[in-house]
Amino acid sequence: METALWSQNRLTRKLGVEYPIIQGPLGGFSSQRLTAAVSNFGGLGSFGAHGLTTSAIKEVIAEIRSLTSRPFAMNLWVSTEDRGARSSGKSEFERSLGPLAAHLAALGVTSPAYKPFAPIRFEDQARVLLDERVPVFSFIYGVPPAEILDECRARNIFTIGTATTPDEAAALSDFGVDAVVASGFEAGGHRGSFLRAAEDSLTGTLSLVPRIVDRIDIPVIAAGGIADARGVLAAIALGADAVQMGTVFLSSKDSGASAVHREAIRSGRAASTGLTKGFTGRLARGIRNRLMDDLNAEGVEILPYPLQRALVRHLAIAAEAAGQSELMPLWAGQSAGITVCQDAPEFLESLVAEISGPAALLARWNKNFRQKRSESKEKIITDEK
Ligand SMILES: Cc1cc2nc3c(=O)[nH]c(=O)nc-3n(C[C@H](O)[C@H](O)[C@H](O)COP(=O)(O)O)c2cc1C
């Protein structure tokens, strides 16, 4: 009874899930098993597919469907390249390779050869999601074209956009997206900003969520820095309809992260994270290490996304194989190490048990708070007239 009071809201009812808990997409580190495990538990598992070809995306969807009959989300990046990616040439490539050359040599790896840019098209990737009629289509870095959103509605595909500012949340809502992730500064991975520069869109979750809740009428999902019961309860108190957690699930045994990466997230080193464009060309958060410091150094030239990503990946693969965690991107948010998640269903089980009682009280309190707030807003408007 207590559980039903807090967990069933306008979002969970629309999604058809038991709990307002989303395992965030982990582009490059998602796994079909983790996605399905979270969905089977009654949350919403997500798979980050932005780096995959259309045929690989189709295979991933089929495998997730073989592991769960519950709703799950497939996630893409609306914008797949930055300005300058097409015109960037061999000399730019060599200048950006410079700071990595000593690390490659230390690992005994030859430098990557220059390859001209090969674009990935969001529209082609989205086509697969539409044809497969995935239950939920979540995205970051913008608003999909109207035809794609129309087709989602026609095919009963629930859409979730990502906002790093209230203006982005309003834009997503105006274009008819069904729900919005409010992604605070603490979050691991990329800042999905699309209206202003990511560097100017760095509000923390505690301030961002209520601002977005006050601004739009569609469901809001709080993300960034949430890793345990305290975080979930705080998000509910801020008015969020659900939470999305990434870093904590990245540390679980079923994520696509390597053992070296998972170990780093669980270690004391994870207490220090930073933002960098050096890993991919776009601003993102990871654990501070030698590679991040080297690439954040003044004067280092970073290629536009996704060229920098390909360059660093070459080093990362070798560093990972050699167990050299100082020389690979260690994606993680500020919540890294707050709690440990070894097995996702076990983690979720104890999370739900811990939050159920207080969450029910908070959900009730929040309803009253919203009611009072809208009455006082109406009063202000009437008094002003
Ligand atoms: C390694 C990693 C990869 C991520 N990839 C994506 C992605 O492809 N698309 C997306 O919408 N969010 C992505 N995220 C964001 C998460 O889904 C989630 O919103 C975020 O991690 C929540 O903040 P937290 O890390 O503090 O839990 C990624 C996060 C991490 C740590």
Ends distance: 45 Å
Order of helices and strands, N to C? HHEHEHEHHEHEHEEHEHEHHEEHHH
Could you name the CATH class of the largest domain?
A: Alpha Beta
- Quick one: biggest sheet? 8 strands, parallel
Say how many strands there are.
Answer: 11
Protein structure class: alpha/beta
Instruction: Give the overall form.
Output: globular
What is the mean pLDDT?
95
CATH superfamily of the largest domain: Aldolase class I
pLDDT < 50 stretches: none
Strand content: 5-15%
Question: What is the number of helices?
Answer: 15
Question: What is the helix fraction of residues, given as a range?
Answer: 40-55%
CATH topology of the largest domain: TIM Barrel
CATH architecture annotation name of the largest domain: Alpha-Beta Barrel
Number of domains: 2
Strand order of the largest sheet: 1-9-8-6-5-4-3-2
> Bound small molecules, which ones?
flavin mononucleotide
**Rg value:** 21 Å
